[in-house]
Specification:
The protein is globular. A hairpin with a 6-residue loop joins β5 and β6 (about 60). Helix content is about 0%, strand content about 50%. By secondary structure, it is mainly β. The strands form two sheets. Strands 2, 4, 5, 6, 9, 10 and 11 form a seven-stranded mixed β-sheet that branches. It has no helices and eleven strands.
């Protein structure tokens, strides 16, 4: 069965960095675009970033452009989100999402606070 398992969340200071990982299994990872989405406490779901199946193109929400970088390793069935220059408003549960948002992981919590 399809599984998406996020890791790498935690507490970071403003201006700090974290790297999220999403390990995928149960499907042909290299055939699917992948995305990251997030939900801040008390707020709605926000798409953060996406990457083509072969990594040839990447996309970012304006709120993270220039600070976050999405990448993938199809040999390891893993997608990453490098988050730099973190802000308190980046605090959220971050989800890994397959393709046209048909499968989601359970999320990893990122807290940005001094």
């Amino acid at each position: 069965q399809v599984q998406l398992v996020e890791s790498g969340g935690g507490l970071a200071q403003p201006g700090g960095s974290l790297r999220l990982s999403c390990a995928a299994s149960g499907f042909t990872f290299s055939s699917y675009a992948m995305s990251w989405a997030r939900q801040a406490p008390g707020k709605g779901l926000e798409w953060v970033s996406g990457i083509y199946s072969d990594g040839s193109d990447t996309y970012y929400a304006d709120s993270v452009k220039g600070r976050f970088t999405i990448s993938r390793d199809n040999a390891k069935n893993t997608v990453y989100l490098q988050m730099n220059s973190l802000k308190p408003e980046d605090t959220a549960l971050y989800y890994c999402v397959r393709g046209l948002w048909d499968y989601w992981g359970k999320g990893t919590l990122v807290t940005v606070s001094s």
